Amino acid sequence: MTEDTTDNDGAQSPNTPAATGDDSSQSATEGETPAENTATDAGANTSGIRRRAVIAGTLGSPALFGAGFAAVDSFGLPSMPSLIGVGAASPLEQARSGTATAGQVDSATVTVDEQAAQNLPTNRYRQLHIAEPVRNMLERDRGDQVRVTRGNDAAVYTISKTISGDASTVRTSSEGKCRVSFYEDGSFSDERRWGSLRGDDNCSLAGEAFDVEIDPRVPAADLSPSEAKERDELIETLNMGGSEYAVLAPHGGQIQPFTGRQVTRLRSEFSDASVTSWKLQGYGSDTSFYRWYVPSAELSTICYPRLAELSEQTYDYAVSFNGINEKTIYVGGAASEDIRQSVADAIDSALPHDGSPVKLGESHYAADSPQTLVNRVTENQSNGIWIGQPIADRRKYSDLIADAVGSALFDS
């Protein structure tokens, strides 16, 4: 079992047996959020461009393009998403604009060299370089996510750089290409070994150019969790409540098993509390992490319509359930030490003797950046409570931990 500890989401590789850890078995109310939560068309205009369903680009080999990935060691991670309240348009308005683009943008194709790209540093295989005309049509920018689809394969990428060149140029690494190579001739195949810290460049597409579709809205729309699981898809589930508490699972489903279930549990057990909940649920046997995972500090609100709706208001407090590769449960976030300590004590008291020790977050697990999603949605980006849990505790005690968190926050 390997889990990623390179960011404060402590991403868990899906190679960990999930058992019933996904949250696809839910009530219709929880799993099938009404259609009005899905962003609607806003009718953007792109001068001189014929509009169609999606934009088709070609995944090129960036080592050949001077300003591309040849100098990858010199540039950092994408700029973080804007904080709530910044910018002329609200997150929901921007998400709706992007959805209109996804439904009507023109398509374009190019041919690029087939030479394999150079390897990228850790976690860069989720990044994409994109030509400015493509970026303009998608109405997305550096730090935003896009959905890349090739046949039956789909994965989420973060735009890390705008490049010059052909109007439909899209560039990623060899590992990035292999993220959309699980289906060959319509049949699923995963004979490659994927590590949680980086991708894999041992696939037939690594040195190839090929056509893809790019969508500015990342999750699939109008699917229930059971349908999403059957189709290896990514969806959002939003339940709007009050503005006192937001409860989040940014890596639910099979990405970090049991975390989405904890959101459902907390909301149901503390139904009298003023709670709004949101889950991003990704599915796919042994591929959900590699295709759908984005660190929560990098999640761009405008790319997820229901997250954008949640972000239309700020919350007094927010809680985020996460998976980590440690033998300790960490309670981090930007909330005061007193609040975090009360949550940690409640979890520690509730766990049986074989549960992991519980500590306040530190180092990777401090999760106190204002960009970390659980902090970002709170007033002044300062009242988030980030909970990182080993897979063993999530598998055995997910409900118990959720109940303890709820008791510490809602019964005090």
Please provide a written account of the structure.
With 412 residues, the protein is α/β, with parallel strands linked by helices. It contains 11 helices and 15 strands. The protein has helices at residues 28-31, 91-104, 132-138, 174-178, 225-230, 259-269, 288-292, 305-310, 337-350, 373-376, 391-410, and strands at residues 55-60, 127-131, 145-150, 153-163, 169-171, 183-184, 187-188, 210-215, 234-239, 245-253, 275-282, 317-323, 329-332, 358-360, 384-389. Strands 9-11-10-12-15-13-14 form a 7-stranded mixed beta sheet. A 6-stranded mixed barrel has the order 1-5-2-4-3-8. Strand 3 and strand 4 form a beta hairpin. The longest helix has 20 residues, at 391-410. Residues 1-7, 13-19, 26-55, 61-80, 82-88 and 98-120 have low confidence and may be disordered.
Content of β-strand: 15-25%
What characterizes the major β-sheet? Answer: 7 strands, mixed
* Order of helical and strand elements: HEHEHEEEHEEEHEEHEHHEEHEHEH
CATH superfamily of the largest domain: Poly-gamma-glutamate hydrolase, zinc-binding motif
Any idea of the CATH topology of the largest domain?
Aminopeptidase
Q: What is the radius of gyration?
A: 20 Å
Number of domains: 2
Second rung of CATH, namely the architecture of the largest domain:
3-Layer(aba) Sandwich
Overall, the morphology is: globular
Continuous helix count: 11
The helix content, as a percent range, equals: 10-25%
Termini gap: 37 Å
